[in-house]
Amino acid sequence: MSRLRANYTYLIKKDGTRILSAYSLNVCQDLFETQDFIRVDRSNLVHRSSIKSVN
Questions:
Q1: What are the CA-CA distances from residue 23 to residues 1, 13, 51 (Å)?
Q2: For residues 29 and 38, is the Cβ–Cβ distance under 8 A?
Q3: What does the radius of gyration of the chain's CA atoms come to, in whole angstroms?
Q4: In a domain, 55, yes or no
Q5: CA–CA distance from 5 to each of 1, 35, 52 (Å)?
Q6: How many domains does the chain fold into?
Q7: DSSP letter string over 1-55?
Q8: Which ranges carry the HTH LytTR-type domain (predicted)?
Q9: Is residue 4 part of a domain?
Q10: What distances in angstroms separate CA 46 from CA 1, 4, 5, 13, 16, one per listed residue?
Q11: What is the pLDDT of residues 3-52, one digit of tens each?
Q12: What pTM was estimated for this model as a whole?
C-alpha cells in the first residue's frame, strides 16, 4: 500500500488573512504565472509589488 502525500499551500493576502489551498505550490505557481508572482525560494511565491528590497 502506498501512502499519499498531501500538499497544501497557505495563500496570505495583504490584510494578513490566510487561505488554505489544496493545491501544491507548483500548481499555484502555474496558476499565477501571468499575475507577476515570483518563486523566491523553495517554499514561497511572492507578488513583485510586495518586494521592497533584495540583498
A1: 24, 16, 24
A2: no
A3: 13
A4: no
A5: 13, 28, 35
A6: 1
A7: -PPP----EEEE-TTS-EEEESS-HHHHHHHTGGGTEEEEETTEEEEGGG-----
A8: 1-55
A9: no
A10: 37, 28, 24, 11, 14
A11: 656 689 999 999 999 999 999 999 999 999 889 999 999 999 999 999 99
A12: 0.74
C-alpha cell at 49: 509589488
Residue 3 lies in a domain: no
Asked if the structure places residue 36 within a domain, the reply is yes
Instruction: Residue count of the chain, please give it.
Output: 55
User: Domain range spanning residue 39?
Assistant: 9-47
| Cα distance between residue 55 and residue 35, in whole Å | 24
